[in-house]
Amino acid sequence: MTVAILGAGVMGETLLSGLLRSGRSKESLVISERRPERAAELTEKYGVEVLDNAAAAAAATTVVLVVKPQDMATALGEIRGSLQPDALVVSLAAGITTTTLEAGLPEGTPVVRVMPNTPALVDEGMAAVSPGAHCDEAHLAEAEELLRSCGRVLRLPEEYLDAVTAISGSGPAYIFYVVEAMIEAGVLLGLPRATSTELVVQTLYGAATMLRETGEHPTVLREQVSSPAGTTMAALRQLDDHKVRAAFLTAMEAARDRSRELATGQG
Ligand SMILES: NC(=O)C1=CN([C@@H]2O[C@H](COP(=O)(O)OP(=O)(O)OC[C@H]3O[C@@H](n4cnc5c(N)ncnc54)[C@H](OP(=O)(O)O)[C@@H]3O)[C@@H](O)[C@H]2O)C=CC1
Ligand SMILES: O=C(O)[C@@H]1CCC=N1
């Protein structure tokens, strides 16, 4: 069984490294990349073979498309003539629907649409998978297995995938944004930058671990921190006054809408 990863940028390399960590041999993986210098860097780092898109597709039982949505039509055109008859095609691209993928591939090709995220780099990824029209249980299980190598996987109807993209796909960026803001606040309050960074990162790690391990609702956990007439309520009141919660809702609607736009191939 050979897996081809087409487009080994941030997300493609993340998946490649996860598959290797989970025990797949480098002989069972091939990659393709547009820029020769990037291809050489990946061969040097991981020892996997780099082929062009058509040759990589011809060599693989599973082809994973990790190019940008705007490059998807070109990539599909490059592989459609060389796919093995039983090949499974898995797309990690935001927005691109299974209908669009199927239309660009030979009739009857099984396709799975996936939305992963970058914490897969530390085996804490969150991915959702949705089957296309020609996809059976074995195909879906194979796609889940790929993503489970570096995190958790949920099976969802495709109608949810634009929302998933807005929440967990883009989600790490929102968290890093909040972390940046808190570190800056610590510096504003006079803390050395390294101290502020350590305080914020460990607080995030601790809070995330509490959410997962206690199973408590975040409201309960937030209330436990908020002493009557204390410091936390003073801060949270400011966040409410500045409509931070509303801004998060609007931001994620915008991400969902952008995912829908990408489906139509808008640059
Ligand atoms: N980054 C993330 O957090 C997430 C990304 N995704 C999805 O993953 C996909 C890739 O995103 P990301 O890794 O961030 O983007 P990158 O730009 O880092 O990676 C895409 C890579 O594909 C290469 N490429 C483009 N066209 C082709 C082609 N025809 N054949 C082979 N390689 C090609 C690009 O080369 P070049 O540099 O020359 O353009 C680039 O190296 C996107 O569809 C995105 O929606 C999904 C979830 C999370
Ligand atoms: O920003 C993007 O379009 C991609 C998809 C989800 C995360 N990154």
UniProtKB/TrEMBL annotation:
Localization in the cell: Cytoplasm
Pathway: Amino-acid biosynthesis; L-proline biosynthesis; L-proline from L-glutamate 5-semialdehyde: step 1/1
Gene Ontology MF annotations: pyrroline-5-carboxylate reductase activity
Keyword annotations: Amino-acid biosynthesis, Cytoplasm, NADP, Oxidoreductase, Proline biosynthesis
Family: Belongs to the pyrroline-5-carboxylate reductase family.
Role summary: Catalyzes the reduction of 1-pyrroline-5-carboxylate (PCA) to L-proline.
UniProt protein name: Pyrroline-5-carboxylate reductase
The gene coding this protein: proC
